[in-house]
Amino acid sequence: MLHVIDHPLIRHKLTVMRDRNTGTKDFRENLDEIGSLMVYEVTRDLPVADVEIETPICSYTAKTLESPVVVAPILRAGLGMVSGILSLIPTAKVAHIGLYRDEKTLEPHTYFEKYPPNIEEATVLIVDPMLATGGSANAAIDMVKRQGAKNIKLVCLVGAPEGVKAVEREHPDVDIYLAALDEKLNENGYIVPGLGDAGDRIFGTK
Ligand code: PRP
Ligand code: URA
């Protein structure tokens, strides 16, 4: 299912990121902040369990997160969302999924993967600012499913309808969260209006 997290603060920060005149520092900072704002909504349905504690006043049956959270950025651009998410879920473990999209064929290529133990019990948040053709997201979901992950959410900033359809088709069990659903892909596979090449804008590469 697709969830577009529409909030004035997210819209404002995304506008800063879309602007071609925004430099690396502001691009990174706004990505980080949107990551934090989005994760509050993304985790709204996480299960909680009872825990017995002593408050300064009395014994109390309180609530705590029932299962661990794993943040799984798709390298490189997904790295830009990790610290914002960890600021709200500091106990989360971090997986790394190394994928790049061939510029001509737009096919994803895997070059690295590393996972924390017990991923099968965790809620796994696959994060990447851009969902274009959906090839990278589908490959990343395949990879974490091969590790045994069952509860997977895909968290992106900007998505194209083509990418959303591709993920919904291959992985109907995975909820997709976007800050914005854009218009389309252009002939080079870039999202329109989009924000350009997220990885290059985060890391100052070309
Ligand atoms: C970008 C982006 C996604 C992918 C989206 O990464 O961060 O991972 O493209 O495109 P898709 O939906 O068509 O697969 P890229 O391959 O440019 O690598 P980078 O993050 O290292 O720049
Ligand atoms: N990857 C990006 O970084 N931007 C796009 O618009 C599409 C894929």
From TrEMBL:
Cofactor(s), by name: Mg(2+)
Metabolic or biological pathway, per its Swiss-Prot or TrEMBL entry: Pyrimidine metabolism; UMP biosynthesis via salvage pathway; UMP from uracil: step 1/1
Keyword list, A-Z: Allosteric enzyme, Glycosyltransferase, GTP-binding, Magnesium, Nucleotide-binding, Transferase
MF-aspect GO terms: GTP binding; magnesium ion binding; uracil phosphoribosyltransferase activity
Activity regulation behaviour: Allosterically activated by GTP.
The keyword Transmembrane belongs to this UniProt entry's keyword annotation: no
The keyword NAD is annotated on this UniProt entry: no
Gene Ontology biological process terms from the UniProt entry: UMP salvage; uracil salvage
HAMAP family recorded: Upp_B (MF_01218_B)
Family named by the database record: Belongs to the UPRTase family.
Function (record text): Catalyzes the conversion of uracil and 5-phospho-alpha-D-ribose 1-diphosphate (PRPP) to UMP and diphosphate.
Official protein name in the record: Uracil phosphoribosyltransferase
Organism: Faecalibaculum rodentium
Organismal lineage: Bacteria, Bacillati, Bacillota, Erysipelotrichia, Erysipelotrichales
Gene that specifies this protein: upp
